Amino acid sequence: MAEIRDLTPVCEITGAVAAIAQPRLISCTVVDAAGMESDSITIVIAAGDIGAWPETGQIIGCRMGYKEGKVVDLGRFKLQRVSQTLYPNTLTMTGTAARFDAKDPTELKRAQSKSWMNTTIGGIVSEIAGRHGFSPRIHGSLGGLPVEHMDQTEETDLKFLHRLADLHDAVCKPVDSLLVFAPRGQVKTMTGRVLEPVNIQHPPENTPTHPGYVTGTVSGPEKRQFNGCTAHWYDNEKAEEIKEEVGGTPRKRLPDRYDSKAKAMDAIKAEMHRITRQGDHLSLNCPGNPMLAAECLLSMSGFPIERMSGQWSIDRVTHTFNGSYRCSVNATRPV
């Protein structure tokens, strides 16, 4: 790609509001997040003589990049809210990932209780996906894993699936019309999107007035809230509940009661992996790059802060176009 100062940023609004938004566009912000957080879009336009507001519920989206290089589709979103400001006279449209509906007609976000018995991860995800109108996408390494007994007690389906995913160091996330259940770092690839590693080098001229300016903060892991984990299982032969503990105090108590020692220890192992996986955190502001996406790998090189260099796993990216194009990135060091 050419020198950043020679590139022309592009933001193309797509979907139902494209005709009114594109010629009036002031700014567009897209948040791409890993895990359960819903991706979102915010479009601000000059209201002027716009007349009637766009209707909520419509599908909107955008593409960002550079005229001289790649212009990438950043997703589809359902328009959830429209608001207008008097001075300056602007109209703001906000949307969330297309399957997240504020009205929640299928009660995806309503707390429910159910005991799941003698099934598999694939069976659970497929049943919940079908109930809410999603098409399930389950990674091959996870779909066949057995679930002999797991209680969903006053939990939303999303929260329950998130807890199930945590037990296997995985992520469950609605993406457009799909409900994806996959190992961490592979959600986007399960949707068919190829996530290529992104390389960022320290610019030769790194000053705030330069279009290629990069700044950021790296911080060490926070103090752990827990140093160990406790789980309970029921011994049918002894007719008693038995406690298993790993690590030191304070210990996190897992809410489920398992039906064997092996199941309890598997749950403890997964939770301990999550507890001890915390690494360095990176907060970065850099020139816009449409290939930056949650769950892709970021390679940093040439930076005067040695701890900033190396490979990172992206947790969240905010793409902002307002005539110029910048990205804010939050990432963690893979452990």
UniProtKB/TrEMBL annotation:
Superkingdom assignment: Bacteria
Pfam families: Phage_GPD
Protein name: Phage late control D family protein
Organism: Oceanospirillum sediminis
Lineage: Bacteria, Pseudomonadati, Pseudomonadota, Gammaproteobacteria, Oceanospirillales
